[in-house]
User: Fold this.
Amino acid sequence: MSSNIRITRVCQYCGSEFEAKTTVTKYCSEVCGKRHYKARTREAKVQVSNAETKAVLEKPLQEIQSKEILTVRDAAKLLSCSIRTVYNLIDRGTLNGIKFSERKTLLRRSDIDRFFEDAVMPIPKRPEKALNIKDCYHMGEIQLKFNISEKALYDIIKRNNIPKVQQGKFVYAPKSIIDQLLNPFPRKS
Ligand SMILES: [Zn+2]
Assistant:
């Protein structure tokens, strides 16, 4: 590479033109070479740091779910809410927060689970109780009205998961659902 020919090149660090001795000389001076090396090292470090930050931000939910002690950020992610909301829940005493240090609040996974157990609205075990008989047919009525057998009717009820309720000796099912299912041409009244 070395030759007696003088080559004009541009310094990769400071951008100024210089007379290079070889075609691969990158810098006008040793100083620029060192500075550029430093800059690249710094940039590499920043990239590593950014990657780490990204990894923390994108910490998979699975990893959070397996932890017993959570940061507020973890909890927010777990609850799909903002960090502010988690702090609000702690302030209101809805969620237990552990003041780990002046600037760090931690939560226990078990407290969050308990929060849900307490907060979940009870699902009525027998929603059929809510059915109003006035809005229902009894089974015999349905068989007559739609001309189907008892077995066929029960199959339909089972297959479509139609709510039914027993009152006295009759079993009832909602007219609206039965009409919709069994009457393809509902009369307009
Ligand atoms: Zn230079």
